[in-house]
Amino acid sequence: MKKIFFILICLLLFKTIFAVEGMWIPTLLKKFNIEEMQKMGFKLTAEDIYDVNHASMKDAIVLFGSGCTGEVISDDGLLITNHHCGFGQIQKHSTLAHDYLTDGFWAKNRFEELVNPGLSVQFLVKMEEVTQEVMKGAKEDLKDVDLKKLIASNIEAIKRSYAGITNYLVDVKPLFYGNQYFAYVYEVFKDVRLVGAPPASIGKFGGDTDNWVWPRHTGDFSLFRVYAGKDNKPASYSPDNQPYHPKKFFPINLKGIRKGDFTMVFGFPGSTQEYIPSQAVRLLIEKSNPIKVVARTIKLGIMENQMAADPKVRIQYASKYAGVSNVWKKWQGETRGLVRLHAVEKKEKEELEFSKWVSQNSSREKKYGAILEDFKKNYAELSDIQIAYDLYNETILRGSDVFGLIARVDQLAQSVNDTAKFSRQMRIIAEILPGYFKDYDGQTDQLILPALLKLYFERLDPKHLPEKLNSCKTDFINSTWVHDAYKRSLFSDSLKIKTLLLDFGAKQIKKLQKDDLYSLYVTISEYYRKNIEPTYLRLNQNIMKVQKAYMSAILEMKQDQRLMADANLTLRVTYGKIEGYEPMDGVYYEYYTTLKGMIDKQDPNITDYLVPEKLKQLYNAKDYGIYKNSTGELPIAFCASNHTTGGNSGSPVINANGELIGVNFDRCWEGTMSDLLFDPERCRNIALDIRYALFIIDKYAGAGYLLKEMNLIK
Ligand code: ARG
Ligand code: GLU
Which of the residues 47, 87, 196, 702 could staple to 223 if both were Cys, CB 3.0 to 4.6 A apart? Predict the structure, then answer.
């Protein structure tokens, strides 16, 4: 009995050691993490991860586009990221004749690699804390506006101090709500070409049905190549550019993974909110998430029908659909997770402890005594307009395509007297127009607009609706009105809108005002901008100020503890172990999936579950080559307890020796509340097993020549 008890205790301890909450700053690993990492199995040093003077892992990692991560896997700048990160590019190169989305794409040689205007990748050259420099001259009694000005001008000065290092992008970002600042220096490469992508039936297998779900069988990867000028420095696109030779690229481990193995994810997590108060969590659970989910459910339903009915619309709306549905599903998991963890109550308890700590001495009272009350006041007010804000964003601003375009043109119209702003707006519109109309289907949009307007009118507190609309709101959701309005509108026709923009001025603005869709948008948005937005912004500003003070107090209260800074789309390290989890009572999920599971899941009647013929043949022949696991199966994905978030997509999953074992692409649904509250029992990141990616490249696509440039550890 005693022995069993002892084993149980050990197991429990073991279990709690595995998952480590936090997305850690690479320059501070030595101070806070490396010892723990090594205890968990990591065999290398903090300098192997981040070093300014020698090649280190950070030199093989990029911010891919504006919100994903990628890693270099060859000396010739070959880059792997997720299929869903390269999705926009793959889609842009796709037409009905060359449907790379459906069929996949593989450049047979470097000349066939496809150029992607607008896509860039950023390598971090270095980062350093600059809090003192940012706060230079800040005195206690400075007014808010003055403090803001001072900080902005200090930041500009810091950026200038890096000048001379050409080709570098310098960014200064706040951490802990502005209680700390870091400067980041990046090298930005703008010639990034598409090298390969599996068909959607592999790269997106499971589609939105399986999105955020473990167990998973998605081959979510795509390959790009970074190009540089002859001097190996960033250069804008030129056919003469050459593959970039990185300071470091990841070796790829084919020996496989085991439960309990140390793993680390190194990438660009976008944003988390680990320190918000109970009221904020309550608002999210009770109001914000639910209304946003309802709006998107309506939009997705319409898109789905239209896409199923017309192959052209399927391609046009593929990327938009994926974008809309992704957070839609996450919000639902997040709400459930927060409720299950009693997040509100947990926060309330923390706040109680906080107020006890504050009341322990009078100087704390003076500094922090009003914080909790201020949160309460501001959130109570915010709660009243949160729905109006969310509805406006989901149904008007980002609802129909046409309102999105109108919003841009409206901004242009408003800036006719400001030359710089005007030409900036004009440039943006000129850039987006071709893509807009390539992926625009009038019929689909005509269904989305009234459906979302209906929701807007129904769910918005009438006191937030312009008088003018209150009386005639049913007109705008009447299908005849909508049909005629679209037919007559300048915005449903690329030629009409281009002509209008050609020589844009007062006359054209008059013309705009006669456009029914334009005036409907303007009526709603003007009212919103006058009556809702200012309050929303004011409250949020107040809240941010309180939040900064709260954070500063927490940093003081927990000064002997290690605190994670919320993610801010900068390079972070998170580590954990390969392990499954218990999604619900009585069920345990294994840590890996295989091709066998994908074959079991296949269903010829469900698009998300179609398995390509060739993959079935490889399965039947068990032709897995060197990519099989120890049981002879072909691994596809695995899950592990690394604390990740959006932006970590495409991040390298690295083993104890610093070798690539997987590519991160998702989190499990039961763990999506980790952006606010991490649960070591249930929060898991989902990664593609690198062996599956290589198998697809080699055996499925016959692009094995790409493997020659990699460093494979067999
Ligand atoms: N959930 C993942 C992320 O947040 C993957 C999204 C893309 N996949 C999809 N089926 N929509 O980005
Ligand atoms: N799929 C996400 C991304 O694009 C990663 C999943 C997550 O949010 O953890 O970054």
Answer: 196
